[in-house]
Amino acid sequence: MAGTDRRAVRRARRSRPTIFNSALDVERWTFDVFGKHRMKRYLITGASRGIGRAIAEKLAVEDTVLLLHGRDTVALAQTRKAVEPRCAKVILLVHDLAKVSGVSDLIAQVGSGPIDLLVNNAGVAVVKPFTEITPIEWEQTVGVNITAPFLLTQRFVPRMPPGSSVVNILSVAAKTAFPNWSAYCMSKFALEGFSRCVREELRDRKIRVINVYPAATDTEIWDRVEGRWPREKMMSATQVADAVTFALARPTDTLVESIMLSSLAGNL
Prior knowledge:
By secondary structure, the protein is an alpha/beta fold. The protein is 40% helix and 13% strand.
């Protein structure tokens, strides 16, 4: 079939809604009707806004299925609206990653088909003196920032083909201690240690583990942090997404292990 005809068929397929009744339906859909070609599947957590949305916008290309996670259904729908015209399909995953049951539900919805890219981006930040952190806040931080990336990586990596990637959006807080950020720093230190070990385990399988360490980035997370912060001096989510797409665009035998990003204004 000529290239023009293929594109016309794809546009026609995207123009009408696709209903998925099960994870098996999702898997079947990702196999192109033109033969053995399998569409790439990219899973991004925390894609409702901020860095996650910016990464989704950068990765929205033809023949790619974006599996976008978020809890804010309105914001997640806005992300979908922004990327859907440019990619093969968008699947929304609305689950609470603070709970193991929520992670399990996400895994079930994604199905058993292979994932070509996992972006562990979802995160929560509790900013207060350590003496004021409640057990619930601590458990939520551990659940979203550590346990969820662990479970998702453990579940999806075994089925990843060579050349696939895992991207962990960490923070300078994985390298540096900040007062009143103890829970957040703890979680980022832990995820860094886990992901660095996983990287070594996956080298022989040709799967890349890329850690990104942004300094303060102007996202909605600061709306919930007390105090006055110079957001005009912070990096943008798009700048972080640019770094991620740069690393992913390297030849599959080239690994950009770590990316440290900061504003010229320094750590804020």
